[in-house]
């Protein structure tokens, strides 16, 4: 037991014999410390590691979609430009900034827990939920426009809008539909993650309201924050790859 | 026992990162409206990687995590690049050799 204590390794064990050690520990440990951890520090690091393991599976989940994007963009570069030209760059940029603001409010709520401000946690969490909701509202208007312009893949899909309003010629309906399939799947799954994130933040908000988090114990708010930031990172890549691409490269332009 | 593993970053640091992310978003939109040809995508991705790195290091606080957590986070992105690398090494090299009937 001479080895130094690390946050994830065994810390110094109680010197008392079996049985007695457990009883002594019960009396002294932090009420929020689960019995299978040595210290609050180890407990927090274990939660963070576990969330990262989950986020790695999320990286691969979205990674498969980015891979599909990459392959089809390589195969149908012109359709990617044509499809992308229909996306609303100002709204996409606005949403990018909205998510960046939500990430700031998120870290501020975690920081509030670390410094022991219940009010701070509540205010910043409500801010995070509001920014997240704003993102979804903007996305709703973007989706509605796509439905209106018959740009949703399926029997009613039409390239008429791209040809008539954006002055593009030789638009291939099949591969352009492929672009919109990926657009809706990637942004749709991202939006689903936002909905889950808002639900998660609501639960965390209730916990914060009840004063569950202290400078000693703030694992749930920190770990939920990791998820929230990850969803922000996905959008950081989706925005340039989907929206900015179509600003150039039109045949007519 | 009661102290936390993580030092508490200052509000100033968080606000600085937020402003930097906002400026980089503006920059990527500005660069998007210029026509650099193929470089457009390269510039956009370089800015996106910078932004993602700032979020991971500062907002997600990976710089203060244990080596095991750091390795796990890095491994996720390494696997992603294995996916892209092996995937594209297939699609980009298919035309190198003429295969009859393709």
Describe the structure.
The complex is a heterodimer of chains A (253) and B (102). By secondary structure, chain A is an all-alpha fold. Chain A is built from 8 helices and no strands. In chain A, α2 packs parallel to α8 (219-243), α3 crosses α7 (173-209) and α4 packs antiparallel against α8. The longest helix of chain A is centred in the last third of the chain and has 37 residues, at 173-209. Chain A is elongated. By secondary structure, chain B is mainly α. In chain B, 68% of the residues lie in helices and 0% in strands. Chain B has helices spanning 11-33, 39-59, 67-91. At the A-B interface, α2, α4 and α8 of A face α1, α2 and α3 of B.
Largest sheet of chain A: none
Mean pLDDT of chain B: 90
How would you classify the quaternary structure?
Answer: heterodimer
Kindly provide the radius of gyration of chain A, computed on alpha-carbon positions and rounded to a whole number of angstroms. 24 Å
Q: How large is the radius of gyration of chain B? A: 20 Å
Give the terminus-to-terminus CA distance of chain B. Answer: 66 Å
- Backbone shape of chain B: flat
Low-confidence stretches of chain B: none
Number of strands of chain A: 0
How many distinct beta strands of chain B? Answer: 0
Total of DSSP H or I helical runs spanning 4+ residues of chain B: 3
Structural class of chain A: mainly alpha
Distance between the termini of chain A: 72 Å
Give the topology string of chain A: H per helix, E per strand.
HHHHHHHH
